[in-house]
Amino acid sequence: HVQLVESGGGSVQPGGSLKLSCAPSGYRYNSNCFGWFRQAPGKQREGIAAIYQGGGSRYYADSVKGRFTISQDHAKRTLDLQMNDPQPDDTAMYYCAADGDPYCASGLRALLSKPTDGLDYWGDGTQVTVS
User: Fold this and answer.
1) Does the pLDDT at position 69 exceed 70?
2) In three state form, how does the secondary structure of the chain look?
3) How confident is the model over 102-114, as pLDDT tens digits?
4) For 10-58, what is each residue's pLDDT tens digit?
5) Which of 68, 76, 87, 131 could form a disulfide with 64 if both were Cys (CB 3.0 to 4.6 A apart)?
6) Please, are residues 50 and 108 in contact by the beta-carbon 8 Å criterion?
């Protein structure tokens, strides 16, 4: 049974920092790509960061580039999103998702544009409020 569990959300002041974590379980940890997505009330879901766990390749949306960092914590076996200098526009529910496509590493930008049913697994999300 595959699960993705996000944690670390909460309230943060503009210019502060926050780290989100995603704990995947139930499948081969090192053979997939993962992405972080977010959705604010009344807005479409936005893919913001993706990583290929096998080689560490990363891709960021322009909206977060230079401020957010996606990474793996091998010791904790989590996928993390370090949010630096968050702004009120970053307020949203944040989700992690897994892509089981064996060729996902060559399409990290496309991964962030996939529809909900185009990715294999989704977490339930963690709320981030910047104010």
Assistant:
1) yes
2) CCEEEEECCEEECCCCEEEEEEEEECCCCCCCEEEEEEECCCCCCEEEEEEECCCCCEEECCCCCCCEEEEEECCCCEEEEEEECCCHHHCEEEEEEEECCCCHHHHHHHHCCCCHHHCCEECCCEEEEEC
3) 888 889 999 999 9
4) 999 999 999 999 998 776 555 589 999 999 999 999 999 999 987 779 9
5) 68
6) yes
**Which tokens go with 27?**
């499948």
108, 45 Cβ separation under 8 angstroms: no
Rg (CA), the chain: 14
Question: Cα separation of 37 and 40, whole Å?
Answer: 10
- Written as one letter, the residue type at 11 is S
What are the distances in angstroms from CA 4 to CA 27, 50, 86, 95? Answer: 11, 15, 24, 9
